[in-house]
Amino acid sequence: MRIKTHKNTTHSNLSCIYETRVRFNEVDSLGIVWHGNYLKYFEDGREAFGRKYGIAYLDIKKNGFASPIVQSTIDHKHPLKYGDVAVIETKFMNSPAAKIIFSYTIKNQEGQIVCVGQTTQVFTDSSSKLALLAPSFYIQWKAKMGLS
Amino acid sequence: MRIKTHKNTTHSNLSCIYETRVRFNEVDSLGIVWHGNYLKYFEDGREAFGRKYGIAYLDIKKNGFASPIVQSTIDHKHPLKYGDVAVIETKFMNSPAAKIIFSYTIKNQEGQIVCVGQTTQVFTDSSSKLALLAPSFYIQWKAKMGLS
Amino acid sequence: MRIKTHKNTTHSNLSCIYETRVRFNEVDSLGIVWHGNYLKYFEDGREAFGRKYGIAYLDIKKNGFASPIVQSTIDHKHPLKYGDVAVIETKFMNSPAAKIIFSYTIKNQEGQIVCVGQTTQVFTDSSSKLALLAPSFYIQWKAKMGLS
Amino acid sequence: MRIKTHKNTTHSNLSCIYETRVRFNEVDSLGIVWHGNYLKYFEDGREAFGRKYGIAYLDIKKNGFASPIVQSTIDHKHPLKYGDVAVIETKFMNSPAAKIIFSYTIKNQEGQIVCVGQTTQVFTDSSSKLALLAPSFYIQWKAKMGLS
Asked: Best mutation site among C20, C23, C24, C59 for testing chain B: the one with the most B CBs within 10 Å?
């Protein structure tokens, strides 16, 4: 499967590193992190990014919006085991659409890439309606971050 | 993001329907199923398929192999809420590669599509080595299923 | 550790059996269900009971209340493995307090007891305030069930 | 429900503080941490204790044993919400039995007690047999810790 990036979506310079220790209960009977748990690590990375740059779940909520995930992709390169530390790099992908797109690279404590992925979020207002245009608070945030 | 299917991968006629009730603990503070939990529903669907056609986790294990997930994609169309039932359709995608590829369509109890996705698995042997060629038990299973 | 039942709490005749298949992602690296996941099975049992007798999460919500868990105990007798089916028996414990108390017995598909436990819930109103007296809808429900 | 501590079980001086940030996916539709997730925090605390004192899961495994949980109790005093940090204090309870008993106190970032609990583990050998006597590595560990 080849994944094509959104048209007009480009890498930004905004990124964040966050470390999380693999939990015993995240490892399956093969002795490796169950594949679905990587979406928890992506969320850890995304929220650490959000706290660093002022665009976390609670910031978005304060502005009257939610930002549900509409697409996720995960590519596994190498397994994590119990005892490992996941080092999550989260990068903001700049898109003209009313979307928040992040790409993720997770390495283990030895610097080996274990997985890469991407998530796309949309905006919904207080009545769960999809925002077709980027909310003004988001446009202002992007301007403040030097993203056009 | 556009996802291109693997070259030479085609839909098969093998599919399976499995129903699972949304658990209270699978719903987030927005009142909808947390996006990462859909990978649990995909696994429910994949294992129901496996029990129906003799290619479940335990069948693969009995043959000396594991089949870790190397790629997952999820596209959300509509949320599930607590009280909903997820109706998971799992389809086997026929590929000449040493891989197991499934596509999934989840509907709610009213027949509305809530999400689609795909997973790719590889084979590893008892010493966790990647099988570059399809294991013979898998080739035989495909022949028995009328897949070439 | 010995657990003493609440004073004046007695077994009722109301009970419910619910079956759930162990998920691959619920099993840990020891090859057995991770101990915390039994609280999901208790919740499955409690909600099946609630649907049967009209006292499920959504019924309580409709009456303007929530019923958060304030105490849980789990005693493990025997492990569940992947491939097993958990057969959950949920019994209503009758108490004069403003509480919902359930006891649980989980067996495997061969009838062997794998775990027993108990949960206690209180009532909170729409502003998250603890109800010191049993809500009237709950008193009426108990009367309808023949519980005094 | 009153919980009686094991006869001859006493508090030790060994304890450990560990902090973990509440994950978005750990919060339920009531906006509070789902009760079953506290067992993950207990595990975080127990493993931090184990790394500090040399009695973590991987240390026990190295000695040829596993230590499955046979009993858990949780008493909730106050909810945790998204954005909160759980401060977990784990204390070793000294017992003459072939068991590992921990008690836990979780506070929020303001020092308010949110929950207390206890877990009991037994020892099983490489063939999953219950050890009726404390393994010699565990007796030596206790001696090294000044516990009789």
From this structure: C24
